[in-house]
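Much of what follows relies on a compact textual record of a protein's fold. Each token is a code from a learned vocabulary of local backbone shapes. The record below shows the convention in full.
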Amino acid sequence: MKKRVLSTGLAVLALAACAPNINSNHYATSGTGSVGQAMNCTVVSVRQVNVSSSDSSAGSIIGAVGGGVAGSTIGHGRGALLGALGGAALGGIAGNYAQEGLTSQSGVEYIVKLDNGNMRTITQGTDVYMQPGQRCFLLYGDQSRVIPAN
């Protein structure tokens, strides 16, 4: 029983690790040292958004395996088989919902107007918050972002 609780806890931690860091001050190691492009712009619009993972396969798989193992302990023979199948189905559904909840983050969608008149949108984390009318830079690179112009 303790092993099942421990393995379930590890699965939840694995799902939580699936949430990427979407903040504008976070850089992946692969993005350091590479040259990007910066464009002058002005914030036109700001709105709060919810950012979540579009891939729920890890949660479903982990949940199905855990549910199948737990369900197989019910009964003997056919009962264990039916318990495993039912547990896997319910575990997969629960794992999908768990991953959605654990990987969901608050974000900000900015619409910016470049100095050449073109408009761009970008969604990023909430670590930097800018107001409409504020001057900023739109940075292009491995991960594009908008930062205040100081």
